[in-house]
Amino acid sequence: MEDTSRSIVIEEPTTTTSQEGSCVTINCKYKYQDGLKLLWIKDAKWIEKEKKFDGIIVYSSTDERPQVAEYSNRVEFFNDQSNHWTNCTLKIHDLKKNDSGNYTFRYIGSEKYISNKFLLTVMDNPCKVHIKPAILNKSFKEGEKVRLQCATSVACEFHPLWQSSGSSEILSSEHSEDEVEKRSELQLNVSWTDDGRTLTCRPSRSNDSYLEKIVTLRVEYSPKTPNMTMNEVVKEGELYTITCTVESSPQATLTLSRSSLTNPEKDIITLKEIQSNILKFAANATVSDAGMYTCEAENTEGKNFSKNQLKVL
């Protein structure tokens, strides 16, 4: 066997019990060296014939021993250095029952070391929640009716809850259940103000944020009335600026145009910004710059405009 002295330390406590769906942090530090290969291994066993520790690779910094797929996108590795010691803390999200086991940190360089063990036990959690539909990768249209379900096992005593993220208010939802699940259905007629709104599905009677699931709404809507900020009266030769902003989704094409006081039927395009919700224009005023300026915003859902007049003295 190799040297297993305290060049790596998994800090106390070295054992914990966590609920399925929750999160665990294993605090760890090691004595820094350059050029190390770093591994977190579950249920490591020494293979004498191969002179290596075998097991499930939870985290890896080397392609020689890649991370297994079951931990992909579920682990965070913290590796910041502080003086002689370097962080090797591991955080595992969305715990599964089969995550139960012994975890060790291993480094390989000019010397090889493995840490003491951390024992993780993952308990059943009948109140683990999920959102239906599972993947919301579509945008909704303004005014569309949206139904979202927060579901848990029928073995859970209580129906799950919906909240707006950042708020303690419980949203009204319709309860249902069958032989498999308990569901709380949220019904919304989405408006433009719901674009970017985050909703939280969580177990009843739990304050563990790691057991929550979130969904962010994407709502497509036509441009609101553009906001024009500009000088209304300037002297010839002075710098004048026009800024046009708008709220819309998807982003709008903004067009700034001017109709001459002497020929109000003719619009002169001054500036156009494609897929941008802000337009800025600046120039030194001439007599011909006087006129009625229009900022028009257009996207796939519709268009809107605002007007303002510029006088040049």
How would you sum up this structure, described in words?
Keywords: Cell adhesion, Lectin, Membrane, Transmembrane, Transmembrane helix. Belongs to the immunoglobulin superfamily. SIGLEC (sialic acid binding Ig-like lectin) family. Pfam families: Ig_3 (PF13927), Ig_CD22 (PF24518). The protein has no helices and 30 strands. With 313 residues, it is mainly beta. The protein folds into 3 domains: 8-123, Immunoglobulins (Immunoglobulin-like, Sandwich); 129-220, Immunoglobulin-like, CATH 2.60.40.10; 227-312, Sandwich (Immunoglobulin-like). A hairpin with a 3-residue loop joins β11 (101-108) and β12 (112-114). The model has no long low-confidence stretch (mean pLDDT 92).
What's the SSE blueprint?
Blueprint: E1 8-10, E2 15-19, E3 24-26, E4 28-31, E5 37-47, E6 52-60, E7 75-78, E8 81-82, E9 85-87, E10 89-92, E11 101-108, E12 112-114, E13 118-123, E14 130-132, E15 140-141, E16 145-153, E17 161-164, E18 174-177, E19 181-189, E20 198-202, E21 213-216, E22 219-220, E23 227-230, E24 233-234, E25 239-245, E26 253-260, E27 267-273, E28 278-284, E29 291-299, E30 302-312
Parallel strand pairs: 2-13, 15-22, 24-30
Antiparallel strand pairs: 1-4, 3-10, 4-9, 5-6, 5-11, 7-10, 8-9, 11-12, 11-13, 14-16, 16-19, 17-20, 18-19, 20-21, 23-25, 25-28, 26-27, 26-29, 29-30
Keywords: Cell adhesion, Lectin, Membrane, Transmembrane, Transmembrane helix
InterPro entries: Ig-like_dom, Ig-like_dom_sf, Ig-like_fold, Ig_CD22, Ig_sub, Ig_sub2, SIGLEC
Main location: membrane
